[in-house]
Specification:
Blueprint: H1 10-19, E1 27-32, E2 35-40, H2 44-49
Antiparallel strand pairs: 1-2
Length: about 55
């Protein structure tokens, strides 16, 4: 495991942490059972095949 040789300043630590952000999942519009639903792109085929349920 990497161990720092010197103490990192508070401003440098916070800058580094603030630069890392999770991105929102891209959503697709899909028509399932006659209604328009926005779901993650990875799950589009599963919803269309009926493998996953959509909560109302």
């Amino acid at each position: 495991m990497a161990v720092p040789k010197r103490k990192m300043s508070r401003s440098n630590t916070r800058t580094r942490r603030s630069a890392w952000k999770a991105k929102l999942t891209p959503l697709d519009s899909v028509t399932v059972d006659g209604r328009q639903v926005r779901i993650p792109r990875k799950l589009t085929k599963a919803y269309q095949k009926g493998l996953l349920d959509i909560e109302s």
